[in-house]
Amino acid sequence: MNSIVLSFAGVFSLLTLISTWLLIRNLRRKRLLRALRQMVVFMLFAALATLAYTLQISILGYQNLSREERVAKIEIKPRPGAQQFEAHVTYADGSGASYLLAGDELYVDAHILKWHGWINLLGLHTMYELDRIGGRYHSLDDEFKQPRTLHQLSKPKFINAFVVRQNNEFLSPVVDAQYGSASFVPANEITRYDLMVSTSGLLLRRTN
Length: 208
Hints:
By secondary structure, the protein is an alpha+beta fold. The chain has two domains: 3-58; 64-206, no CATH class. Helix content is 32%, strand content 37%. It has four helices and ten strands. It has helices at 3-28, 32-58, 140-145, 161-167, and strands at residues 63-64, 69-78, 84-91, 96-102, 105-115, 127-136, 150-152, 175-186, 191-198, 201-206. The strands form two sheets. Strands 1, 5, 6, 7 and 8 form a five-stranded antiparallel β-sheet that branches. It has a five-stranded antiparallel β-sheet with strand order 4-3-2-9-10, with no helix packed on it. A hairpin with a 5-residue loop joins strand 2 (69-78) and strand 3. Helix 1 packs antiparallel against helix 2. The longest helix is centred in the N-terminal third of the chain and has 27 residues, at 32-58.
């Protein structure tokens, strides 16, 4: 969670409560002109608080990124005589998961959010969220005929900033660029990779 966005949401919520109290007081004293002005202020702060909370929810699961970072280690173990392999993923926080995948290559993709410069002042910088891991075949014919395996890495959320940006072009002044990034590597031998992410996207770097 982005603490700066959450702080803005808290401040706007407090200002909304203060505006509500002032609005009620002016109405009770029948100061209609002041009440009207206070109503406008109340609506402004309420809208800003709602926007801040919505933004906070939409980026849950995303991580801030300022340089190239290793986000996971992946160990590949192929199964002899079959186009299958195991991929064990160990994340930076120590958690992990294993996947049985079909194909000749390991495939990983992610969502990348790159905020416009003025949004950086709110503490939001380039962010990423790992989305899927799966198997990929060398042959296009195999892609059509052989089993496909794909697993979701991201957590489902009610509002996803990446999806919202894709569906709303008017947000371009806020999100400077949004795109998916993917990387794939051979899975025909026991191999270890570092899964790296930078502002330019994903990279699987062999470590042994």
